[in-house]
Model the fold of this input.
Amino acid sequence: MLFGLSGIVMYVPAIYAGVLHDLHEARSFFYSGTLVLFVFGLIALAMSHTREAPRSVDHLVALFLAFTVLPAVLALPFYEGLATTTYVNAYFEMVSSLTTTGATLYDNPDRLSPSLHLWRGIVAWFGGLLMWIAAVAIFSPLNLGGFEVTAQADPGTDETQHGPRIIADPRKRLARAAKALIPIYAGLTLVLWVLLMIMGSQALGGLMHAMAVLSTSGISPVGGLENAQAGIGGEVMLFAFMVFALSRSTFSNETGAVRRDAFWRDYEFRLGVLIVVLVPCFLFLRHFLGAYEFEDSQNIGAALRAAWGAVFTVMSFLTTTGFESTDWQAAQEWSGLSTPGIILMGLAIVGGGVATTAGGVKLLRVYALYLQGYGEIQRLVHPSVVVGRRSDARRIRRKGAQIAWVVFMLFAISIAVVSAVLAFLGVGFEDAFVLTIAALTTTGPLISVAAESPIELAAQSDAVKLVLAATMVVARLETLAIVALMSPELWQK
Done:
């Protein structure tokens, strides 16, 4: 189904390229889309009478193949349209887009035509939508992707198989999730696009920035928000819509979250807001105190710009979007940190909410670890105390912190392994570490801002690019899901 849909979607940039009179790229997308639809039709016809009842693992395998095989198909029009790149580069670009990482080999936006930029944005947008649907229809039944913290069954096992509840066929669950979430996802994107154009953004730039925020890909056709022409008003709009990556309760009741009318009491959302408030205070408090001591009233405007730049950028990297505010440079000057890359990487590692398009460890797991640590401190201070469960933590299972710690350790081990592999392939230690964090958190813009100087991704070898592509896939599915795929019990269901 995804392969057939990808063929249909290829006609969109084909039409756009035709409108721009770029006939070579229009033919590339049109021919690729037609070829994909033809091949998909033959495969579907051959398998039309051989379908078996799907198992719990089948959809997880299909999702894995979607992130590994589908980019090879999506790279066809990109490779043919650009005509000055290798197929490995095109494949890397599509993996980066589909996993909503947003890392690009083409730092100069003028290298790509508008239709190629649009194709990257569309692929990333559909990648985000795929994760929304997969969270409801695949990860939730298998207690993966963050749901293992609140579920009663163990990760990688279908909770519904052990209880009295009867659920719909997995295919019906996918259809129901798509029917519920596609209108919300598309509607939010359309609203944000219109708002950005009202603020002065160009049509293509506004559309791609809207898709980038909803998918948390951070893909921009103009090289960032400083060239978006939407000003601070546009940044405010983007900031408001980044909220949907902090908690699933902001857009869906399908994933077992708290009720939508009570999302202010959601611990993921509150923890995200707390981080967005505290980290910017830390960033520019030192300089602000110095300016206050000398009563430099002329710096009030600079302080406000620095505060906004820090708040927006922290929110952006916490949700793994990776957009920098136009006032981020002012925020850096007030913080006194020339390159606060370690802070941005830390934010990306924490990540956004469960069942959202954000990457990272996820806020829910961090909150579970906080509750466990708080309880342990209480026991150290008062050994005989009976620690009760807070009302807002009743959904956290008793072993939630233990599983969250396992996920965190798997994440740390992944950092060590991937960094070592990249170093073996000739990448410097610092660059290897930044590239690993960017790939594992699906926050591609870290490659440009986290190191002392931007890393030239295009100059890396094909082996490095393929390792990073594989890391992005693992990050998008999460290591726990990859481990679950190796479980014999799951394959027997």
